[in-house]
What we know:
Elements: H1 2-83, H2 109-126, H3 139-148, H4 154-167, H5 171-175, H6 179-186, H7 192-209, H8 218-221, H9 229-239, H10 249-257, H11 266-274, H12 282-295, H13 323-327, H14 346-350
Helix pairs in contact: 3-4, 3-9, 6-7, 10-12
Amino acid sequence: MVVRRDSAVGEQASGGAKKTTKAAASGSAKRSAGAAGKAAGAAATEMAASAKKAASARKAAAAKKAAPKKTAKKSVEKAAKKSAPSKAPAKKAAPAKVTPAKPPRNESHTALVRRARRINRELAEVYPYAHPELDFENPFQLVIATVLSAQTTDLRVNQTTPALFAKYPTPEDLAAANPEEVEEILRPTGFFRAKTKSVIGLSKALRDDFGGEVPGRLEDLVKLPGVGRKTAFVVLGNAFGRPGLTVDTHFQRLVRRWQWTDAKEPDKIEAAVGALFPKSEWTMLSHHVIFHGRRICHARKPACGACPIAPLCPAYGEGETDPEKAKKLLKYEKGGFPGQRLNPPQAYLDAGGIPAPPLGAPMPGSPPVGTE
């Protein structure tokens, strides 16, 4: 009986031991598994960190390798740019050097004639459209306009005479005009009182002495109030087709610059220059010279660098010789500006000339009135 009890106790003890062993083994296994899990997690984290570091290292290495290539590429490009032949800046062609055509001290009359006529031929090619720069339709209008042109520009006269001739179309009409009304019309031309007296007196003389017609002889024209030799030759040459030299301020200035004469009095200049040319050329010679004086060979700043007859001119160098600067000094059609006539000839328009605007209208970009 005792034996059985002990055996049962032994069995119980053995069963408890087994249970205790199993529990211990189970706890140990769980602890081992937890430790293993932790170790595995740590290992995974360490491996991820190592992989990340390795990736960063690879990127850095790749960047280091790429950087020299870019630098090398830039260096090569810079070297290529330096070695490439640079485009030299285009140099402006130097203007041909012009020497003043000084005539010899003892120039013969024959040599002077040849030199003067050559200049006129050159001017005829430059200004084939040269013409009187006063608007007129008949000899009466021309003689009145020429008288009014004293101490003012042809442009101002051309802007004023349309109103005058619209109101007083004939010598008889102007002769009977009210002086105050005429003065008001002529006010823009300057010296309007003196000019009013001249044109009314001239009209009365035409009415009373010449049957209301403008005479076609020099000796008759110079008897009219306000008419001198210059005005008479303008009328004879352009209204009657009879040759005459118009010795105005431009003509006087240029013929002295060209050393055709050293005379200063208009009548002496007329005689000296008239002896160099056939009489048949006098009228057009006057137009050529005056056109050149108004457009290029100015009194104060001649545009020597843009002058087509510079190689023939003894006075070359008195004005601006730089071609670009000289071009800015050109006037009227040579500078792209309107001319002086409101109704210029067709030849002038065909050559690029621009009509002048009427009185009071703007004239943009043109030389100021009063600077011929």
